[in-house]
Amino acid sequence: MNYKAFTLQNFKEIPQIGKLSDEVCRDMTTVGTVLPFKSNNYIVDELIDWTHYKDDPIFHLTFPQREMLSDQHYNKMRNTLDSTTDHEQIKNVANRIRFELNPHPAGQKEHNVPVFNGERLEGIQHKYRETVLFFPSAGQTCHAYCTFCFRWPQFTGMDEFKFAARESENLVSYLKEHPEVTDILFTGGDPMIMNLNTIERYLNPLLENISATNIQTIRIGTKSLSYWPYKFTTDPDADGLLKLFERITALRINLAIMAHFSHPRELETNVVQEAIRRIRGTGAQIRTQSPILKHINDDPDVWADMWRKQVNLNCIPYYMFVPRDTGAQHYFALPLIKTWQIWQQAYQMVSGICRTARGPCMSCTPGKVQLLGPAKLNHEEVFILRFLQGRNPDWVQRPFFARYDEDAIWMNELQPAFDNEFFFENEEIKVFGEHYSDAFPNDFE
């Protein structure tokens, strides 16, 4: 199959769009002018049930929905589109709305970008001691865009929102100076959008200098198995890509494909199953993760089914995330207590081999915070939480308590249960690299 993208400019060419009303198409155009929209022919033809599109999870996962913008933002954008065709005016209104949607949550711009030899490395993030994220500039798009994506600003054309590195020499130099880093995560966007030659241009400097670093795991974050599995089967450079994977594993480097699967349907086509089989044949492992999302997978049966299917295909369930506080969070997010209830019920349905997944987990400013569940302590209803990762490594696995809140959907809505502040607020960060500030910011925005 040859890849064909669908965006605002050509989505009405999709034959199945004829099933949608003019009003729905109008809504898609309005929302898609603010939040990025791209789908493709594989998703349209193989994954979406167009006879029931209104309730179809993959339709909600990839096509803009009216409720993804607040009434205020929707009306502002709609009125602008109705009153002018001036591109700059439309862009300015869209940008003003975007700035109100918390485009860089969890301190990505302020606290994650390292300084090396006096220079900010804008295409690199180093939040946790052992792991560095690298954003290749040629990988800052995807085969399709998830409507929940917390990195949606990468795709809006606003340069100040982008993380991107044009070359990897600075990355290698940085890793040589930071032996505490054992894991490098190539992310984006989606690195698998790049052709083989470009991927090798980024990876080769690292592989050629691997012995001068302490890198033990190379991770690749990708949605390509869900959105374009032909990347690993019949695309022109598919065989060469798999040979590159074999080259990495032959160096005794753990290669982990961090695959994003949000619904069991993404695992059911013959081509995705063949792609998984081929990747596993190179010695790479596949770990799977997704947020828990209203309209898509807010059902314990869906998660249990998805975990079983992943394990049966020799993938490793890894994370259930809570949607981040950005973009269309209001459309997708559930109350934290509901998220935990779905998690617990799904966990009860599967065998131990599926219970490698961790969640529900919030990737917020101080780190990855897992909700362990509700409890009653000292006659008070509380949430029990812990860090799975922290800006300060000493925070990891330390339980702490928040007041029970049946409406809270994110960390910044929780209040400490027994103290005036959580133990990590205003605590000095243990510096493990010259790029970190002296103190932890006392907010969760």
Give a verbal description of the structure.
The chain has 445 residues and is an alpha/beta fold. The protein folds into two domains: 5-99, no CATH class; 108-358, Aldolase class I (TIM Barrel), CATH 3.20.20.70. Helix content is 31%, strand content 18%. It has 14 helices and 15 strands. The strands form three sheets. The chain has an eleven-stranded mixed β-sheet with strand order 5-6-7-8-9-10-11-12-13-14-15. A two-stranded antiparallel ribbon has the order 1-2. A hairpin with a 2-residue loop joins strand 12 (358-364) and strand 13 (367-377). Helix 1 packs across helix 4 (71-83), helix 4 runs antiparallel to helix 5 (87-99) and helix 12 crosses helix 14 (336-349). It starts with a strand and ends in a 42-residue tail after the last strand. 45% of the residues are buried. Mean pLDDT is 90; it is low at 428-445.
